């Protein structure tokens, strides 16, 4: 399959490109810099220059492809409205190009904020609808195109897609521990996060592209619920630091912007995803990655 990938040199995207190429697919990656383009060429992928604000390039990539994987996001936590607007516009551009084609469109989403008080499941529709919602309501907007003949598929990633080299939420929590000299968790630390290894997430994206039906919600969660206190304890052990509770009112001051999430319940089941795709995570767990020092290198 000829596959167009946005975010092709990002944390999940680079692993996804490798997964696609190993499976025999042809890949064109969106690249906004020379270094990103060089990385793709070195792997044997084609390059389309552009970024999330270049909707003409995104339309061109989608039009030439037999399937689209949209993983790019600005992740501008200082200006979330800009990130949300770009995400919605990208999804709309891709959906419009693919309309009437029955081609697959796998797009990044998340399990964060879907429900509270229990692990979310694939049956839970996203509550985020409309351009002012988180991620610009992109999941709901992408599913609007199912009725127009697009095989839209949500890849809902765990809040931590972990592994050596990760610079996401867990890396920021580790950095806060190093800065403050204590490894913290929020409140009593009983809330849990889902987690998935990067390579397992990439394999899920490829399987979804190949066979998931239109309107499918896939949960990229290798572990349904890792208590945040256990995460803090693993970080404390890795850095030889005491483990302490951080008052919820101080969480953002202590952890930075990730503090608004670290106290949330973000557990999620992937039972239906596993049954549908035959997907079985094989990578290390989050606590195994932390114990092995994946986040404590120089």
From TrEMBL:
InterPro entries: Epimerase_deHydtase, NAD(P)-bd_dom_sf, NAD(P)-dependent_oxidoreduct. One of its GO terms (cellular component) is cytoplasm. GO terms for molecular function: aldehyde dehydrogenase (NAD+) activity. Gene3D superfamilies: NAD(P)-binding Rossmann-like Domain. Residues 3-211 form the NAD-dependent epimerase/dehydratase domain. This is Nucleoside-diphosphate-sugar epimerase.
């Amino acid at each position: 399959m000829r596959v167009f990938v946005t975010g092709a040199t990002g944390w999940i995207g680079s692993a996804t490109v490798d997964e696609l190429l190993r499976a025999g697919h042809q890949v064109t990656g969106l690249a906004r810099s020379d270094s990103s383009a060089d990385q793709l060429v070195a792997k044997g992928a084609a390059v389309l220059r552009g970024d999330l604000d270049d909707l003409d390039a995104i339309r061109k990539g989608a039009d030439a492809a037999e399937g689209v994987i949209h993983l790019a996001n600005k992740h501008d936590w200082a200006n979330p409205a800009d990130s949300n607007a770009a995400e919605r516009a990208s999804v709309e551009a891709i959906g419009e190009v693919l309309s009437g084609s029955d081609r697959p469109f796998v797009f990044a989403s998340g399990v964060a904020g879907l429900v509270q008080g229990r692990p979310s499941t694939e049956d839970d529709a996203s509550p985020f609808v409309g351009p002012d919602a988180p991620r610009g309501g992109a999941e709901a907007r992408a599913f609007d195109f199912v009725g127009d003949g697009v095989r839209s598929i949500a890849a809902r990633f765990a809040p931590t897609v972990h592994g050596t080299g990760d610079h996401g939420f867990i890396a920021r929590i580790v950095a806060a521990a190093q800065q403050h000299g204590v490894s913290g968790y929020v409140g009593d630390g009983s809330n849990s996060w889902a987690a998935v290894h990067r390579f397992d997430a990439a394999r899920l994206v490829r399987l979804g592209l190949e066979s998931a039906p239109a309107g499918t919600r896939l949960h990229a969660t290798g572990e349904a619920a890792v208590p945040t206190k256990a995460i803090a304890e693993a970080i404390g052990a890795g850095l030889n630091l005491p483990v302490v509770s951080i008052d919820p009112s101080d969480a953002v001051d202590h952890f930075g912007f990730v503090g608004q999430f670290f106290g949330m319940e973000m557990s999620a089941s992937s039972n239906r995803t596993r049954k549908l795709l035959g997907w079985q995570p094989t990578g290390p767990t989050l606590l195994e990655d932390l114990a092995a020092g994946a986040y404590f290198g120089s």
